Amino acid sequence: MQHNEGQERSSNNFNYGAYHSLEAIYHEMDNIAADFPDLARRVKIGHSFENRPMYVLKFSTGKGVRRPAVWLNAGIHSREWISQATAIWTARKIVSDYQRDPAITSILEKMDIFLLPVANPDGYVYTQTQNRLWRKTRSRNPGSSCIGADPNRNWNASFAGKGASDNPCSEVYHGPHANSEVEVKSVVDFIQKHGNFKGFIDLHSYSQLLMYPYGYSVKKAPDAEELDKVARLAAKALASVSGTEYQVGPTCTTVYPASGSSIDWAYDNGIKFAFTFELRDTGTYGFLLPANQIIPTAEETWLGLKTIMEHVRDNLY
C-alpha cells in the first residue's frame, strides 16, 4: 500500500512510522496544537507518580462551550507501544482530515474529542529505558519491594473483584484502593468535572479484539445489543483496509474477567459508548509489534474509531 509522505511525517518531520520517546510524543502534541490553533489545544490534566505531566489534546470547534465529548485513551499499559503510536497518529489525522473528510468534520461540529496518548507516562519511560515489558505504573507499595499497580484494574468499577490481584507483585495488582494511582485519578477527576462525556474508547494491545462492558461480570450491560452492533460495524470498517479481523464481544467472555477497568467505570458512570480495542497482532510479535506495522494499524483503527464516533454523533443522549 502506498503512503504519501504527509501521512508518515508531519510538517516538523515527526516520523509516524516509528516508536518515540515520551518527550517526542509530547513535543508532537505541541506541534499539532501550534499547527491547528483553532482546532487543537494541549491540556495538562495532572501529573504521574514520578511527577511527569499528563497531557491530552482537546479537539474542538466550539469555543468555550461544554459540548458532548468522546475520550480516547491509550498507553494505560505501558508496554503496549502500538497504542501510544496509534494515538499520536490519530491526533494528526483528526486535524489533517477536518474540513476534508465529511465524517470527522461533522463529528467535530457536534462534539469534542479528548485524546490522551500516554495514560501511563512513568511506565512508558520505564519500558524505553529499563524493562520493555513493564505493564504497571511506577508507584511505591508500602510494605512491599514490588513497584506499581495495574492502572486498568484501579478504576472504581467492582474494584478488587474478579481478574485482579491484591498482591503488589502481581501484573494485575489492583492497587491499595480505587483511584489510588494518580494517573487514573487525574482522568477520573477531569471527566467528572467536565461532564457530558458520551464515549470512552481505550486502546490496548494485542489480540485484535473490540470489546464493550462488562469485564467485571458476565452480567449483560443494559445497552449490550446496541454496543455489539456498533462494535461489529466498527470491526467491519477496520477490516476493509487490509483484511485485519477483529473479534467482538463483552470483555468478560471475550478475553477474561477483569474488574476495575476504565470502560466499565465509564459505562457505570453514564458514558454509554464505552469500548476497548486490543490492536494488532494476534501473538506473532505480541507487544513487540514491528514499527513497520504502526501506520497500517493506525489507518485501519481510524476507520473503527470513526465508525463509533459517527454513531455517538447520531445518538447523543
UniProtKB/TrEMBL annotation:
Tree of life domain: Eukaryota
Keyword Metal-binding: yes
Catalytic residues (positions): 278
Cofactor: Zn(2+)
A biological process from GO: proteolysis
UniProt keywords, alphabetically: Carboxypeptidase, Hydrolase, Metal-binding, Metalloprotease, Protease, Zinc
Molecular functions per Gene Ontology: metallocarboxypeptidase activity; zinc ion binding
Pfam families associated with the record: Peptidase_M14
InterPro entries documented for this protein: CARBOXYPEPT_ZN_1, CARBOXYPEPT_ZN_2, CPA_M14_CPD, Peptidase_M14
Domain Peptidase M14: 18-312
PANTHER family, sorted: CARBOXYPEPTIDASE A4, PROTEASE FAMILY M14 CARBOXYPEPTIDASE A,B
Family the entry assigns: Belongs to the peptidase M14 family.
Listed name of the protein: Carboxypeptidase A4
